[in-house]
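Suppose you are handed only these lines of text.
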Amino acid sequence: MIKTIAILGGTGPAGMGLALRWARAGETIILGSREAQRAQEAAEKIKARAGSAARISGTENSAACGAADVLVLTVPFEGQAGLLKQLKPVIRSGSVLIDATVALAASVGGRASRTLGIWQGSAAQQAAELVPKGVSVAAAFHNLSAEMLNGDDPLDCDVVVCSDDPNASEVARNLAARIPGVRAIDGGRLENARMLEQITALLIGLNIRHKGHGGIRITGLPPGAYR
Ligand SMILES: NC(=O)c1ccc[n+]([C@@H]2O[C@H](COP(=O)([O-])OP(=O)(O)OC[C@H]3O[C@@H](n4cnc5c(N)ncnc54)[C@H](OP(=O)(O)O)[C@@H]3O)[C@@H](O)[C@H]2O)c1
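From them, the structure of the protein bound to NAP can be written out as follows.
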């Protein structure tokens, strides 16, 4: 079990869904928001579903950040850089930041089934440039449907984790494996996050075309590759 997980931008569907699953798994969660009250209300909603023993609270993003060693970033791409710059002074050295951001073209008025080109290669690599020294970044959870995360059934999806830091990858894979139905797989270096982010755009297109909530399964690897 991880000490405390702060989910920054945790009031949206992706953050709330992850929080629900981890609260049910017994993790301690702080939901972060630009407005403390919004985060508190979101935390209460999750508590009502996960049970009164659930360890979940809500506060403003910087306070959440300063109280946790594991940070999960679930904001739209257009807010990612600004939020990380704002939080830089309060992110604890030695923290792990898990980035789930997808740079969808919808951020700039384009289609949700396309990604934007990013100078650094991916949103996760942009995040790695913006965190303080001593903070490691993993990319994960891009391909989980928030709709499914916010339900009660096990998910039918694998989570590929990309990071340049083995500890950050380990932390993210352990958290992924706490979600029922999810297997976590080491996806190699952070630069591979570019492909994870593009798969999300593909899944959005598939969901629109086929009216579903698609996910991915990686098959054919030896059992030890899956957590
Ligand atoms: N939805 C999915 O199925 C899914 C799946 C995988 C990955 N993702 C990725 O995960 C991220 C979050 O997805 P989502 O659907 O939950 O997004 P969202 O609802 O659009 O945003 C999540 C939260 O981010 C905060 N936020 C919005 N704009 C912001 C800004 N400019 N600066 C700082 N904070 C801002 C808001 O919280 P406050 O107003 O409370 O601050 C909002 O509730 C996105 O990058 C998305 O591409 C989504």
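What can we learn from it? The domain at 5-225 is CATH 3.40.50.720 (Rossmann fold). The chain has a mean pLDDT of 95.
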